[in-house]
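Before the break, one more example. Copy the sequence into your notebook; we will annotate it together after we see the structure.
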Amino acid sequence: MSLDPVTLQVLAGSFKAVCEEMGAVLVRAAHSANIKERRDASTALFDAAGEMVMQAEHIPVHLGAMPDAVAAVRDLGHRAGDAWILNDPYRGGTHLPDITIVSPLFNNGRTGDRLLGFAACRAHHADVGGSTPGSMPARSSTLAEEGVVIPPTRIAVRGEIDGNLMRGLTSRMRGPRQREADLRAQLAANRVAAIGLARLVERNGLDLVERGMAEVLDYAERRTRASIEAIPDGQYHARDVLEAEGGGELSIAVRVRVRGAGVEVDFAGTDNQSKGNLNCPLSVTKSAVYYVLRVATDPDIPASAGSYRPVEVLAPAGCLVNAQPPAAVAGGNVETSSRIADVVFAALGEAMPMPAQGQGTMNNLTLGNDASTGSFTYYETLGGGQGACPDADGPSAVHVAMSNTLNTPVEALEQEFPVWVREHSLRRGSGGAGRHRGGDGLIRELEAREPMEYSLLTERRRVAPRGAAGGAPGERGRNLLVGAGGATRELPSKAQGRLAAGEALRIETPGGGGYGA
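Here is what the structure looks like once it is written out:
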């Protein structure tokens, strides 16, 4: 017998509240600016079979990848109080800085009781021991250059953290004390999930909570299928490109087949995985596809794996969007995922009104050094212009599509790191013209107060975001190195090097495309 609608909504809201509370604990307990200020993290709750019952509204690029992380540990044997750690992109991860903690949740917290499900949280750490500070190198070609690879490993046993394992991992990363503090914040977030779920069981009973998990999944599937049925049946195609490190382009092709209440998304014809780091694990590709379908159907559908059941994602093994080890993936999670979203939006645009292209990049910036006086690592993504819609202008200076983070506030940035913020402003007029204008990008200029290394992983520096229905493209982004004397030199979309004290990086992010002539 199905749950009545009121009970179902109350339980769905309760599951979401558990996830949101996990996120609040993680953000407040973390030490790195990347988590506590930018909130580059996600939290989710899973059932005993490993299906995602609910995810907090955090980072879209984690949508499809979090379930793969739980699947990687689901059958490894669990006891109450255990926790698993992983970041291997080919075993449930995305790219190496994204470290995931998965904890089994038992009824009453006792091993002999029934396994209710899993709590999982993923956070982007400021460094994981890569070849450059921040572990987002622009020129990596193998996974080993990007940092410490962590296969699914038990990091807590019956509630006791394995301190030797944690120190063994963090000692290979820059800022090991901060890395350990952030990992402990993730473990605390999962403990909050255990407490929250136990309270739900105490209040509602075990059977009702388990039925609620199953019915939230089924409800999300029903609503998604109903939305897909409103899309005209057919096959829709699109192609777009990425800007490869060192020049040249990498092509992503997609065929979206809509038939009844199901969708097949096939990336046959996409270029092979590259020598650089724009390669994308299949879990990240699924995240981008699920994000687009969530936007194209009904964003109010619960963020659960039930909404993914009608969607099949196909990609040839060894292609750019289904990379195989040991391919480097640092840019795949951030830049290729953004282009996958663009190309699937473009394909569906043949079937229904869709917005113009947004900035199509996360504008990844890392700064840091290994100075004997004390190292630091800083990482952030920068907002830009969103594409205009059929009925509205695009918003300006926002994180677009696969990124839902904040920026690092100027005050926090200058207080914690040896940089000055010379300018943080709207890049006025960079949005594409049209009946509705694309959103404007932004300008962020950072001056080094001491020598440091930088790395830039950006896109849309050579190929502009496209407009729609006759709208003009948005302005391309620019990366500039500003010398101490004021002379400027333009940098490519993928760049790394050194800044002397007094030199600055000026990043001008792309605008969104316009809609309508």
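Residues 107 and 278 are 42 Å apart (CA to CA). The longest helix spans residues 176-204. Try to locate both features in your own notes.
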